[in-house]
Specification:
Number of strands: 8
Strand order of the largest sheet: 1-4-3-2
Distance between the termini: 35 Å
Largest sheet: 4 strands, mixed
CATH architecture of the largest domain: Roll
Radius of gyration: 16 Å
Helix content: 10-25%
CATH topology of the largest domain: 2,3-Dihydroxybiphenyl 1,2-Dioxygenase, domain 1
Order of helices and strands: EHEEEHEHEEE
CATH class of the largest domain: Alpha Beta
Structural class: alpha/beta
Strand content: 35-45%
CATH superfamily of the largest domain: 2,3-Dihydroxybiphenyl 1,2-Dioxygenase, domain 1
Amino acid sequence: MQINMVSLSTDRLEAMKAFYTSVLGFEVVEDLGSYVEFGGQPVRFAMCERKIMQQATGDASFDQQATGSPFELAFECATCEELDKRYAELISQGAKPVKGPSVMPWNQYAAFFADPDGYVHELFARLEEAG
């Protein structure tokens, strides 16, 4: 098995699409109104309205608002300095700060931010490779 796509379920597709394009710089390659797929990633990345997923699967969990952050996307930076700069840019463009840049116990320098739905994502730089 190999992961081919990661998809977020949302009730606020337009706000999420705007964040991922204008703040994170993703490019929309397919927009079907209730489903959006982004290009330029090694793994396909998409988001879909919850009501569409509920209709498609019949799974009642899609009728419930998600709580917490069930997963994260992690974006690698080449250096700690690049991470500091990129984190500041993301926050100034509307990403919600969660935890500022700091050294993590897993030998990485990392910072955490949230998107409009509250999904927490990470910027990281490998300490053995970063400066």
